[in-house]
């Protein structure tokens, strides 16, 4: 039988999609048990399973793209389209949160006093920690762009500096948001305001954590010379994701922190 050559990467059979599905199910069950019975064991086991699966799955992808040469131009094109569709799905995910927020805030119901913010809610000052976090996240968008241009220019040292600053700024943002949550004068159970506020900003905070881990992995790969001037889609995907996080935060800040107060 004649062997057919093509530019696409036909992935070898892998256990990781099935294992990740089981780990996600374990995490969900653990979260439900924690919410109802305050028992953390299954949730911790689920999160550890997800983390280990991510590590080994990403290890295989890095091996295929960096050492085995499977990520041809056609394959990278497909990866880019797939990642763009993923970001579009994330945009729609956040649209649902904004929809819930504006549905409740533009026409407040009688149950919350026909007023927004509802009676009894003391909103956060948008010009304190939220404004500082806005400056930090926008600065991180500039540093990740600096790192990207440095990679394209072949300047590894500058790219490492820019990416290191981005990771540090992401950690500072997360720490400040945690401080903000601790000091907030309301909680997620305080009417629809608390629900929409903590769900929208909390999921954004989760995306910041994921993006920081993504960029940190890229930093390790960059230090090991995995990226070249023309072949660095792993970093491109991380930078796209980070810019998406930046844009979502601007909408959150303007709508929920500033206008919503």
From TrEMBL:
Annotated ranges, domain Heme-copper oxidase subunit III family profile: 4-261
PROSITE patterns attached to this UniProt entry: COX3 (PS50253)
One MF term in the entry's GO annotations: cytochrome-c oxidase activity
Key words of the record: Membrane, Mitochondrion, Translocase, Transmembrane, Transmembrane helix
Pfam families per the UniProt record, alphabetical: COX3
CDD domains, sorted: Cyt_c_Oxidase_III
Segments crossing the lipid bilayer: 16-34, 40-58, 79-102, 127-147, 159-179, 199-220, 240-260
A single cellular component GO annotation: mitochondrion
InterPro entries for the chain: Cyt_c/ubiquinol_Oxase_su3, Cyt_c_oxase_su3_dom, Cyt_c_oxidase-like_su3, Cyt_c_oxidase_su3-like_sf, Cyt_c_oxidase_su3_a-hlx
Membrane topology recorded in Swiss-Prot or TrEMBL: Multi-pass membrane protein
Location of this chain's protein in the cell: Membrane
Signal peptide: none
Superkingdom of source: Eukaryota
GO terms (BP aspect): mitochondrial electron transport, cytochrome c to oxygen
Similarity-based family: Belongs to the cytochrome c oxidase subunit 3 family.
Job description of the protein: Component of the cytochrome c oxidase, the last enzyme in the mitochondrial electron transport chain which drives oxidative phosphorylation. The respiratory chain contains 3 multisubunit complexes succinate dehydrogenase (complex II, CII), ubiquinol-cytochrome c oxidoreductase (cytochrome b-c1 complex, complex III, CIII) and cytochrome c oxidase (complex IV, CIV), that cooperate to transfer electrons derived from NADH and succinate to molecular oxygen, creating an electrochemical gradient over the inner membrane that drives transmembrane transport and the ATP synthase.
Protein name in the entry: Cytochrome c oxidase subunit 3
Organism classification: Eukaryota, Metazoa, Cnidaria, Hydrozoa, Hydroidolina
Gene of this entry: COX3
